[in-house]
Protein 1
Amino acid sequence: MDNAKCNHGGRRPGAGRPRTDSHLYAFRAGGSVAQAIDRSDNKSKFINDCITTALTMQPLGTVYHADRVKPLHLPYFDISVVAGFPIPLDNDELAQDIELLRMLCPNPEASYLIRVEGNSMIDADIHSGDLLIVDKSNRNPSQHEVALCELNGEYTIKYVHTRNGQGYLVPANPDFPEIAITPGDSFNVWGVVTYIIHRPRA
C-alpha cells in the first residue's frame, strides 16, 4: 500500500497547464465600453485588439495653426554650401531677408504645427518631441508621404498603404505593428507632413 501511495504523489513531468507569457486580468467596464464589449462575439480578441491599437497610435501633443505663429524674418544667403572648406558669411550685403514661416508653409491658411509624442515613426526621422508642419490641403498622400490620420476619433502619424483593396496604417518602426483599416472604422486623412523640425542629433 505504501508503494501505491508513492506512485500517486509528487509532480509528474509534462503534467499541468503549459506555461505562456499571457496573463489573466479582471477589470470593471461601464457605460458605452461595457456595451461595446458585450456586442463582440470574441470579447478577449476585441479587448486585445483595442489595447494593441491604443499602443500603436502615435499620440499628438499641442496643435498650433500656422496663422497663429508670429512672422519671423531671417537673413538668407543664396549660395551653395558644401561640406568642404569654409565660406565666409559675415557680409550682410550678400544676405536677403526671408519670412521663415512662409518658406516652410506655402499654404499657411491650411497648415498646422503639431508636437509629436511617441516613436512609432523614428525610421522616418520623426522622434518624440519633434515639431511637424502638416498641410491640410493635401489629403491624398502617396505611400512615401507621412500623413496625419484620424482613426475612430484618435489621431496618429503614419504612412497610408493600400494592398489588395485593404488599407493599412504603416509605422516606421519595426517595434510597432501595422493597423488594418476595416470597413467599420471611421477613417480620414487629415493632412500630409511637409516639414519636420528638430534639433540636430548626435
Note: The chain has two domains: 23-56, 58-74+100-197.
Protein 2
Amino acid sequence: MTFNALLATQADNKITTSLTKLSDADLMPGDVTIAVDYSTINYKDGLAMTGRLPIIQTFPLIPGIDFAGTVVESSYSGIAVGDKVLQNGWALSQTHHGGYAQRARVRGEWLTKLPSAFTTRDAMAIGTAGYTAMLSVLALEHGGLTPSSGDIIVTGAGGGVGSIAVAILSNLGYRVIASTGRLEETDYLKSLGASEVIDRATLSNPGAPIATERWAGAVDSVGSHTIANVIAQTKYLGVVACCGLAQGLDLPGSMLPFILRNITLAGIDSVNAPSKMRDLAWSRLARDLDVGKLRTTVKEIPLADTPNYAQAILDGKVRGRTVVNVNA
C-alpha cells in the first residue's frame, strides 16, 4: 500500500518540501508501525522546514516532530496492535522520519501511550508545545513554587507553548501575567486564564541587571533580552523555566539576580526527556489541562498546507495550536 507523506529535500543549501506517495518499504527501521491520525506544527517545525536552523540532519526526510495514531504492527513489549500512542521529539525530523505522513515506524521506547482523557486530535492540539509547557510547570513546582508564591509570567503567551502554559497555570490556581507582542489577543489570553496581559516591548529591549521584584516565576519561550529582563524582575527564591529561543539564543543578563535573590534558572528539554518524565507530564496534562480551553486554541489544516505555516509560525503570526490532519 502507499500513503501520503510530506518529504523534505535539500539542494544548494535550500530545503523544499513536497507531497508525495511512499510505501512502508520507505519507512525507517523500528519495532512499531503506526497509522497516523494527526500531527502538528511547532516552532521547531518551522525552523526545520525553512532551514533557519539545521534541525533536519539527513535528506530526504519526512519532517514533523510529533504524531498521534493507532498501532498497526508491533514487536515491542508493552505496545500492542490497536493501542493509541503519541510521540514527541526524540529523533523525529532530525535523523528519523517524522509525523507529516499517514504512516510512521519508530522504536517502541520513543512512544507514549495516549491518556484516556484525550483523543489523538487532542494529543496533537497539545503536541510538543503543550508537553513542553507541562515540563516547565513541573520545573516551577520542583523549585518549590505554589499559587501562594506569587504571580507567574508567561512570555510568548500567544504561541503554542505560551497559550497552553497560561491555561495549565490558571487551572492550577496561579495568577498569570501573559506577555505578548499581539495585544489584540488580550481577550483570547484572558479566556485561557490570564489575569493580566502586558506588551512584550516592556521586556524585549536591554534592561537593568536587577530590577524591582514583580513575579515569583516564569515560563519563557523567547530568550535573549526578554528572559534577561524576566530574571531581573523575579522575586527571591523564584524559578524561571527556559524552554525557547524565539528572540534569540543569547542570555545578555547578570549574575546579580541569581546571587542576591537565590533564583533558579531551569532549562527545559523536550526532545530527549526520559520516558518516566514524559509519562508524568502527559498524566499531569490529562489532570490539569482544561480540554475545553485547549480546543479553543486549535486550528486544523490538511497535510498539504503545512509548509505554508512554517514561516508564519516563525514570524509570530500563528495563534495557539495548529493541528495537521494527515488524512485530509
Note: The chain has a mean pLDDT of 95.
